[in-house]
Write a structure and sequence with these properties.
Family: Belongs to the membrane fusion protein (MFP) (TC 8.A.1) family.
Number of strands: 16
Oligomer: single chain
Helix content: 25-40%
Structural class: alpha+beta
Number of helices: 5
Largest sheet: 8 strands, antiparallel
CATH architecture of the largest domain: Beta Barrel
InterPro entries: RND_pump_MFP
CATH superfamily of the largest domain: Efflux pump adaptor protein, beta barrel domain
Strand content: 25-35%
GO molecular function: efflux transmembrane transporter activity
Distance between the termini: 45 Å
Shape: elongated
CATH topology of the largest domain: Elongation Factor Tu (Ef-tu), domain 3
Number of domains: 3
Radius of gyration: 36 Å
Length: 297
Amino acid sequence: MRVLEMLSTLVTKWRLLLVAVFATLFGFHASDPAFAGGTEFEGRIEAVERSDVYSRAEGIVEEVLVEQGDYVEAGTPLLRLRNDLEKLAIDSAKAELAKASAILLQARDRLERAAQLSTRGTATEVALFEAETNLTLTEADRSLAETALEIAQTNYEDTLIRAPISGHVEDPRVGPGSLVEFNSGDPPLFQIVNLNRLRVVFEIPYTQWISGMNGDNSRSDASSEASAFRVQTETGQVLRDSIPLTGSAVWFDEQNGKIRVWADLKNPDHTLRPGMKVVVTPILTPGTAEKDHSIRK
């Protein structure tokens, strides 16, 4: 009798083992959403909207108006350069414009007198032509003076460096007394990062990505209601909501057979930060069980 009980127990265990093997091989899943066993992708959180801040003007830093981590709206002043020379340039340009305007008035009066004398026959056609030419030249000089004033005002405004986008100040690299030079090879003065717009970027097998597009190769994005993922950060935080794919790279990596994809993240409390490593796990539902089976094959 004891031998028969042992045999019955052994048969039961083998049946359970076979069920587990078949479920793994052929993609059988329970009716509730479940994680794809053994399928994990390493990813990283990135900022969707980030801006490097450079200065078009050159000079000595007078004052830094923000600190690391400050939130700023687009257009907020970040840094002020010494601008005494730019102020003098504006004063000089205004004086040149006033001079050009006065000379232009004289040229108009001369042309008017020359036209009257020509009508009376007491002035030659040459004198009238010279007056017209002089007026044209003085008008051009006044236009140049106006442009010079606009340039001087722009140079002055450029000494106050503003935030190009709304976001948090990251990695300020200058302080009062620092020399700022315009060089595209230099690091930015600041970075502005919008923490409200983040995404998780990772690589998945191309076959899984194309399967998630429901067989429609003409779609340029990777979004699909059937493709959902669970995200866990390196700190152990698990995002409350599953995320669908929202985009994909143009290039396919032929060496590993994968494609880079990403999904937008909600970050209302700003606990997620760019640079965080994450583990992304596909979530399988009854509607995706058959797809998962084809991917495994």
